[in-house]
Amino acid sequence: MAAVKNDFSKGSVVGNIMSLAVPMTVAQLINVLYNVVDRIYIGYIPEHATLSLTGLGVCLPVITIVIAFANLFGMGGAPLCSIERGRGNEREAEAIMGNSFTMMILFGILLTVLGIVFRRPLLYLFGASDVTYPYAKSYMTIYLLGSVFVMTGLGMNAFINSQGFGRVGMMTVLLGAVTNIILDPIFIFGFHMDVQGAALATILSQFVSAAWILKFLTGNKAILRLKRETMGLKVSRVKKIISMGMSSFMAGFTNSLVAVACNATLQTWGGDLYVGVMTVLHSVREIAENMVKGLTSGSQPVLGYNYGAGEYDRVKQAIKFVSVVTISFTVVAWILVSVFPEFFIHIFNRDEELVAAAIPSIRLYFFGFFMMSLQYSGQACFVGLGKAKQATFFSIFRKVIIVFPLTLLFPHVAGLGPMGVFLAEPVSNFVGGAACYGTMIRTVWPELSRKKESEEKS
Fold this sequence. Notes:
mainly alpha; 19 helices; 0% strand
């Protein structure tokens, strides 16, 4: 019955997308709480709020890398599962999920070991100073010890969503987020653990989420089940998973690379204050960005299933709907941040010096934010239809080819200084977004038309 219920080739395309996108958007926002709530609480530590917040900001590249590997195997395997399920090949879909799970465990352990061994040089590379290093070290060490839970909790939830259980995926994230919200003040303020308490609350919350996910995927309610016999790695299958997940991985990896460049450059041009400003801006961006990700992620199972089932007109309908909604939302988000910058900054910090520096920075950083929606819409289409090469290229293009060099260059131009770092982001949104979406329209749209015509003739 469940398999029939989650047949995305039937019923309204918009309805199918929204049935997944609404809970997945809520889940994305809840997922942001894992790290954002930490920053909110840390921003109100009485003695050293700004230093602690800056220290946590230095750890963001580490957090982003762990998430990137979770996406490599989760977002790599989940679209393949949707396509195979659309073809009626559930045995291969389960094998893909099992192989993805094994890779998450192995790489989670590897990242923990490497991160702890090289944490000192890494943190200084990421923008730590002698003053902020102790706070960064405390957070990073505990967070890395729970990286297996983080990877399993984030990565395997994609397989729940890909089967059409959007509400279950949302409840999974909600369970961990509520746990984190409860534990944060207890550890940070009650036990006086400061940043260590924030990290401990995060990994314990991810453990709860991971346990819930595994319980569901091994139970009778799942369409595709996680079984021991599917966990043995097959080279050809792993290659397909990695190939498909490479765009999501590169998006995360390049985000980490850019975060390193931003923090290091800001440390040179503005010191710890501007590294703290970037932490606040990154936190605000996460909230807006993850709402867009929720919608585009919700469209991917529908895109993949209909593509696998040969319903090409429905694929076009899905692309149109996602494009209109994401552009509309990001325009509204841009206006709100530009008109009410203090409101968003005060969520994370009320230090007068930091707020004064952050107001012009956030307005520049978010300029033309609506162009980012084109990047995500194009990427969602490429990933959902199994076009790994295109998805990977545009992940690299925006961050590595545009943002990274401009982050290093702009501070030297026309006396921009630290503001040059914030200018690099809107420039990349305009260039990268237009290139990604334009390529998708010029290549995918004609292909869908040709496939439909070919089927009609046959």
